[in-house]
Specification:
Distance between the termini: 47 Å
Number of helices: 13
Helix content: over 70%
Shape: elongated
Largest sheet: none
Order of helices and strands: HHHHHHHHHHHHH
Strand content: under 5%
Radius of gyration: 30 Å
Oligomer: single chain
Length: 259
């Protein structure tokens, strides 16, 4: 509908200024030149969109010329046809807007994807992460386990084990959470968030010495990752070592500012 409106102005401008008509034509066709000359995976969607743009622009010009000719011979029919094209364009735009609003909901998007493609493990993984962020940990744990029942990319598997551990911890299933964390750590020994979460788990269990060791490993893995510095300061303060606690808190403050 927008292209037809753009094309409909061309004859009007042509009768008044051919320069203006030429510039207006160039404006409409310039979008077709924005596709890269050699497509790759990242640009594939852009190339597909642009590949259809130029034929649609030419079709819009033909439609506009046809409406112009029809306007001179049968004005009423031309107006009815133009109104129909505008209505169809608005209906298509409205449908696209509604679909976009539906897909703005991550959970609905993932569920629709899984309904059509049950083995879309990436969609199930993102659904599990969404459920965990929404604190629906039982559902999240179920989805993470279903992801891990199948061979997936190592990075996704590590993240699934780590996030499964978070949900299990929140559900109070601490032994299972530790096993999940350790499986994630076996796949990525220097993963700082897994080390930090193991420290949190040990602290919840009252194992302060073990917690301190995990936090120190997290600091060694990433000295500017602030959360374990804060927890080390808290452990030192609770152990009656205010000087050590102050040093950790100062490092935490510095790391937070750098992040």
């Amino acid at each position: 509908a927008i292209l037809v409106g753009w094309a409909a102005l061309l004859p009007f401008l042509w009768r008044r200024s051919r320069v203006a008509a030429g510039l207006w034509l160039a404006v409409g066709l310039s979008w077709a030149a924005s596709a890269p000359p050699i497509p790759d995976g990242r640009w594939l969607r852009l190339v597909m969109e642009r590949a259809f743009y130029l034929p649609l622009a030419c079709l819009a010009i033909l439609v506009a010329l046809g409406l112009g000719g029809l306007e001179r011979r049968r004005p009423r029919a031309a107006r009815v046809l133009a109104a129909g094209l505008v209505a169809a364009g608005l209906a298509g735009a409205g449908r696209a807007w509604l679909r976009g609003a539906d897909w703005a909901d991550t959970r609905r998007l993932c569920l629709e994807t899984l309904e059509q493609y049950p083995n879309a493990f990436a969609a199930r993984f993102y659904l599990a992460q969404h459920e965990r962020r929404e604190r629906r940990h039982a559902e999240a744990a179920s989805h993470f386990r279903r992801v891990l029942d199948h061979p997936v990319a190592p990075r996704m598997a590590m993240s699934a084990w780590a996030d499964l551990g978070v949900s299990l911890k929140e559900l109070g299933r601490l032994d299972e959470a530790e096993r999940a964390y350790r499986k994630a750590l076996a796949m990525a020994p220097g993963e700082v968030r897994v080390l930090f979460n193991l420290g949190n788990l040990a602290r919840v269990r009252g194992r302060r010495t073990e917690a301190r060791r995990w936090y120190e490993k997290a600091v060694s893995a990433d000295p500017v990752f602030a959360p374990p510095l804060l927890m080390l300061g808290k452990l030192a303060y609770e152990a009656g070592r205010p000087a050590d606690a102050e040093a950790w808190f100062r490092r935490y403050q510095s790391a937070s500012q750098r992040r």
